[in-house]
Amino acid sequence: MKVFNFNAGPATLPDVVMERAQKEFCDYMGSGCGIMEHSHRHKLFEGVLARANENIRTIMEVPENYDIVYIQGGASMQFAMIPMNLYVPGKAMEFADTGTWSAKAIKEAKLFGETKIIASSKEDKYTYIPDPAKMTPSEDASFFHITSNNTIYGTQYQSFPESKCPMLADMSSDIMSRKLDVSKFGMIYAGAQKNLGPSGMAVVIIRKDLVERTPANVPTMLRYATYTENDSL
Ligand SMILES: Cc1ncc(COP(=O)(O)O)c(C=O)c1O
């Protein structure tokens, strides 16, 4: 009997996908070698990576001035990488606090610098998202961070705020579920396990100019440029 998992998180996949993954696990495209056994520098794996990039770029209409990278540690790792890479001392990191995951992002940012909450529904137990049209991030903030869909609370932005500083969005639980204008965002990220693929990894779509921002003392594996310059390999 097929069991359907409707929990928030890893969910039911189509049989055809599972069967193909199972087959290619043992022999990828007749190479005599399973996909897990191939070098990540082999042309067959390069094809897998190129298709993943191409699919994301096409489905989400990602403009050319954005890089697409895959980083271990899930969306939670991004809560720390964002302030490490994108905080500019003297310019606050601004947030909309709309649920558990926003609060976790804010908690991590506080470890690295000044934060400011410019909209919140915390007092009302996160039962709604404050009007995005009334969110006015400062022009000179390091960035403005939102959570597009608040897993657990079930609240989702139906329109996005206008922001003159780079707007960053955690889209872990609604990425690719609707059409959106990527160019409104400095960065979009998502833990892969809900809407896209296996757990433990985040997809990060980042505007190229922001990749340059990272201070010199950020460790190599926590710098966005390490991933963009090496095609996530
Ligand atoms: C909106 C949102 N952000 C972040 C996370 C954390 O994701 P990860 O488990 O990839 O760290 C979740 C997980 O449920 C989430 O729903």
List the helices and strands and how they pair.
Layout lengths: L14 H12 L16 H18 L5 E7 L1 H13 L6 E5 L2 H11 L4 E6 L22 E5 L1 E2 L4 E2 L10 E4 L16 E5 H4 L5 E7 H4 L12 H6 L4
Parallel strand pairs: 2-3, 2-4, 4-7, 7-8
Antiparallel strand pairs: 1-9, 5-6, 8-9
Helix pairs in contact: 3-4
Bound molecules: pyridoxal-5'-phosphate.
Pyridoxal-5'-phosphate binds next to helix 3.
Give a short summary of the structure.
The protein is globular and about 55 Å long. It is built from seven helices and nine strands.
Strand content: 15-25%
- In sequence order, what are the helices and strands, one letter per element? HHEHEHEEEEEEHEHH
**What distance lies between the first and last C-alpha atoms, to the nearest angstrom?**
39 Å
What's the number of extended β-strand segments? 9
Structural class by helix and strand composition: alpha/beta
Q: What is the CATH superfamily classification?
A: Type I PLP-dependent aspartate aminotransferase-like (Major domain)
CATH T-level fold name: Aspartate Aminotransferase, domain 2
CATH C-level class is Alpha Beta
Largest beta-sheet characterization: 7 strands, mixed
Q: Per the principal axes of the C-alpha atoms, what is the gross shape? A: globular
Q: Kindly give the count of domains.
A: 1
| Approximate helicity band | 25-40%
> Which residues form runs of ≥5 with pLDDT under 50?
none
Number of helices: 7
Task: Label the CATH architecture.
Answer: 3-Layer(aba) Sandwich
